[in-house]
Automatic annotation (TrEMBL):
This is Antibiotic biosynthesis monooxygenase.
């Protein structure tokens, strides 16, 4: 399994709106791509901003290519990102997942 990590920052007042927009764009497009295995969004507050980290999970690099295009190290951005005053990281990180376990109590 491969984890793909992307980060961005938005002004605090755009946080909820952008999170919804992220579901309608990145999550929706990812989940429609064969080989997609799940996603997580992390959020943390900064001074007047919110940082969001999107982790998507994939079965193999070829599936990420189908989603991201030829250069999988480049972030996939969307036309209305600027509406939310998005400060995106323009590159993404990929990791081999060597442990993937959640507590059965969750």
């Amino acid at each position: 399994m491969i984890a793909r990590e992307w980060k961005c920052r938005v002004p605090e007042f755009h946080s909820e709106g952008f999170t919804g927009y992220l579901y309608e764009t990145g999550i929706k497009d990812s989940s429609a791509t064969p080989g997609f295995q799940g996603a997580q969004i992390f959020r943390r507050s900064l001074a007047g901003k919110v940082e969001l980290t999107l982790i998507t999970y994939w079965d193999k690099l070829a599936s990420i290519h189908a989603f991201a295009g030829d250069d999988i190290s480049q972030a996939r951005l969307y036309p209305e990102d600027e509406v939310y005053e998005l400060e995106p990281e323009l590159t993404v990180q990929h990791y081999e997942v060597i442990e993937h376990q959640l507590s059965p109590e969750l």
